[in-house]
Design goal:
Helices cover 70% and strands 0% of the residues. It has 442 residues and is mainly alpha-helical. Helix 8 packs parallel to helix 10 (196-208) and helix 17 (314-327) packs antiparallel against helix 18. The chain is elongated, with a radius of gyration of 39 Å. It starts with a helix and ends in a 17-residue tail after the last helix.
């Protein structure tokens, strides 16, 4: 998935947080991923020089071990294969053996050692195209322009190799240059009809042009060649999503993950669908899985925080937002918008939320921020603060009125008792008698 499309999904999620809806989402586009290196064991060196008997025997044993594991359909034991190929190169400097050792080391994620093995193969056989291509795959620059220049150089050196054309086609596809991407993919298929990567590019070109039947037909052809390629399964998932078959799309994306553990394009597609449907538990699961493989994705960290917010875990959400902000070095405006939403909706803290909205506007630009959830949130905050201020003023006025009323009342005095009560309360003595009574008898 491209950065711009993930940002679009983030804005959809933020809009949902602010009371909007997420009825649709952009079509997911997998991030470029290095294709699996293809081991092509050879019996002889590129120059046709015969190997020594011991080296030939060890080479044959290494090839047989790889083929036996494939035949048994068991998970490849890369450690065993590494030992086999190391035994060959320790016996004789065979470029094909160094290449195959590089492939094994790459599969074991020992990338520095894999690079060294490919360079050794090239030093022994400078025109050994597979080693040059695999080394270029490992060292492909992150910048698309630099990557294109690097692959052009490989293509000039090895014009018959299909992989440089496939990689260039992928770069053109990512840049939206569909005609160039399709042309290069077709040229790759001319040189190798089994170039699965070329099929994947042509499928995505057809998908972007709305040619869904063609895209699905290409998927069928590609799966007949190699049904275990995750790129084709992921692309077919995107085609099915375009046909509004979400269940079928999820099956294909999960199939891609089963074919290659940690296959990120499928993870991004599943994440995008979960966001679009506001399935926050699923979004959190996919975001955590992506970060486990690629921990420096600030946008995914932000998505995780949004999911936590919806799952009722505001403290985890705030921690995820802080981590996303650090990863992006302050260049991810959406983190401030998401934090503002949390402060308003969960913490009921409008003043710090307004500060976050202002940071979002400063980074995103007034033009972007004025037509979206930020403006609604700001108005909501201002209204809440104004209502709170009015309530405080009303309370103060009421208290002042009570104090003024109390001040107008006279000091407390004793009321004069009525005459009857006074008479009744007059104490009697020996020389007094009730009215009308005779005096004492003497």
């Amino acid at each position: 998935m491209t950065s711009s499309k993930l940002l679009a999904l983030l804005l959809i999620a933020a809009s949902a947080c602010a009371g909007g809806s997420a009825a649709s989402r952009p079509a997911a586009e997998p991030r470029p991923e290095t294709p699996a290196a293809a081991a092509a064991p050879a019996q002889k060196t590129g120059s046709g020089r015969e190997l020594s008997p011991r080296a030939q025997r060890l080479f044959d044993e290494a090839v047989a071990a790889a083929e036996e594991q494939k035949k048994l359909k068991v998970p490849t034991d890369w450690e065993v294969l590494e030992k086999r190929w190391r035994a060959v190169v320790e016996t004789e400097p065979v470029p094909e053996a160094w290449f195959n050792l590089g492939v094994v080391l790459e599969k074991r994620r020992e990338l520095d050692d894999a690079r060294a093995a490919y360079r050794k193969a090239l030093s022994l056989e400078p025109e050994f195209a597979p080693a040059a291509v695999n080394l270029a795959l490992l060292e492909e620059p992150r910048d698309p322009g630099q990557a294109a220049a690097a692959w052009q150089a490989v293509l000039r050196r090895f014009p018959q190799d299909p992989i440089p054309r496939v990689r260039l086609a992928s770069l053109y596809l990512a840049a939206g240059q569909l005609d160039e991407a399709r042309k290069l993919a077709r040229e790759a298929l001319v040189r190798d009809p089994r170039a699965i990567g070329a099929y994947a590019v042509m499928m995505r070109v057809a998908l972007q042009r709305g040619q869904l039947d063609l895209a699905q037909l290409l998927a069928v052809r590609a799966q007949k060649i190699d049904g275990s390629d995750p790129d084709i399964a992921a692309a077919l998932g995107d085609v099915l999503l375009a046909r509004h078959d979400e269940a079928g799309a999820m099956v294909q994306w999960k199939k891609a993950l089963s074919l290659r553990d940690g296959y990120l394009p499928a993870r991004y597609s599943l994440l995008g669908l979960a966001l679009a449907k506001q399935q926050w538990q699923g979004a959190a699961e996919q975001a955590r899985a992506i970060l486990a493989s690629d921990p420096n994705q600030a946008q995914v960290q932000l998505v995780l925080g949004i999911a936590y917010r919806y799952l009722g875990q505001p403290d985890k959400a705030l921690a995820a937002y802080e981590q996303a902000e650090k990863m992006a070095a302050g260049k991810l405006p959406e983190v401030h918008l998401a934090r503002a939403v949390l402060l308003i909706k969960t913490k009921e803290q409008c003043e710090p939320a307004l500060a976050e909205i202002r940071r979002y506007v400063a980074l995103a630009g007034p033009g972007v921020a004025s037509d979206g959830p930020a403006l609604r949130l700001e108005r909501e905050c201002v209204q809440i603060l104004a209502a709170g201020k009015q309530a405080e003023e009303a309370a103060r006025e009421m208290k002042a009125e009570q104090e003024r009323a109390a001040a107008k009342k006279p000091a407390t005095t004793t009321k004069e008792a009525p005459p009857e009560a006074a008479a009744a309360e007059t104490p009697r003595t020996a020389h007094t008698a009730p009215a009308g009574a005779d005096g004492p008898t003497r």
